[in-house]
Amino acid sequence: MPTTDPKHKPTYAAKDPLKKVKNHSQKQSLKPSIKQSLAMYSSVDALAPLASPNSPTVQSMSPLQAYQQAIGADSQHIEKKAITADPAQQEALLALETLYQQFIHSSPIDKGLYLWGDVGRGKTFLMDLFCQCLSQPPKQAQNTVMRLHFHRFMAMLHQQLNQTSGIRDPLTHIAKQIAEQYQIICFDEFFVSDIGDAILLARLFDTLFQSGVTLVATSNIPVVDLYKNGLQRDRFLPTIDLLQQYTHEIHLSGDKDHRLSHQARPQSSPKPTWLKLPSAQTPENMFAQLCKQGVDENSPIEQHHFAQKSKHTLRICQRDIAIQAQHADYAWFEFSALCQGPRSALDYIELAGQFSHILLSDVPLLGGQVRSWIRARGTEDGAQATATGERQLAYASEDDPARRFISLIDEMYDQKVILIIHSQWALEDLYPTGALTFEFRRTYSRLIEMQQWALNAAIT
């Protein structure tokens, strides 16, 4: 799979309502429409191009052709190899090719696709390849494909539900509006952990599928294990039935994490000391080094670190977040500011839209020994009692900030933000144990690739 070059992160124009607005907090409408919300959160335009936007590679190739050409190009430049042929990807690649051909030739589409497997197996890469081939002119599919990280889609959905008071059956209304605009929806990292999301999805998907929308999704777990052991999981089972009915499930069962294998290749240039973990330099020095890469050295750095922190904040989603320093679209935040307080995916979506480079300092050891307690019957649903009975819950002391950190990394990765970590711990030691071990494996894999982005930026 490729190491995506974040330098291709585009600048969006607000003229086209289907294009993503760079900073959606500055939109004039206080109640964005479905169309505006989809434009805010959609990331199909953020995919790194396979080649120059005007080249035949992008404009006229199918997923299979683009994949094969990328491998062929790599064979002549082994030291720069970005895509390695993987037999375990072939079934998924051919299924995406079939779906692509059916769509562009207006043939009936039997089912969508649900690609699942361990971290780093190429699921996101293959789905993005599919989306990119469909979204490039002169394909008739242009502007009919929506590609979103799943948590971004749920953020948009909850926003719209808050704006549709007075509309009968708002969920069906929202689903129909989505279906009017998009024929294919691609979700990256399909994962459900919240009971509110679990309850919404069955009715939403039922309307989308009945309206002819095709779903392509990636996940780390099979359909049958979604929301496993979740509260009132019986209310999510209809969603599982719908996914099994309307998608073809493919397991990418390879044993290679392509992100880790890319890191193992010999580097033509040594890694700068300020990028290494555990960190040997102060965050002040690291931020100064970061700003030297692509910003005018004569412009002043807004250094907040030595002033009163309470007076230097950034307004994000109507809340203040402490910022240590800012230089153009480079920013430095402490871990506590982004992951210790009441933050959500919406905060990270907006931050990733504002900054191209972020230094996150003082990242602590996460996770810890798992503790358990009994949650009383009905407490998850307010005053209304439920039939859930006593429920055993488990967590580690640092799992709440770890969960936010996972969400932050997902968003930075999805929007191709170069993230620099300052920590006294090695990357592989950040989360030694805890209740989120499975989820953090994806985060670790993505951080490995993001380190390579930072290294590429530092030596070019």
TrEMBL record:
Region (Disordered): 1-33
Gene3D superfamilies per UniProt: P-loop containing nucleotide triphosphate hydrolases
GO biological process, one term: cell division
Keyword entries, A-Z: ATP-binding, Cell cycle, Cell division, Nucleotide-binding
Pfam family, one: AFG1_ATPase
NCBIfam families referenced in this protein's UniProt entry, alphabetically: ZapE
Name under which the protein is recorded: Cell division protein ZapE
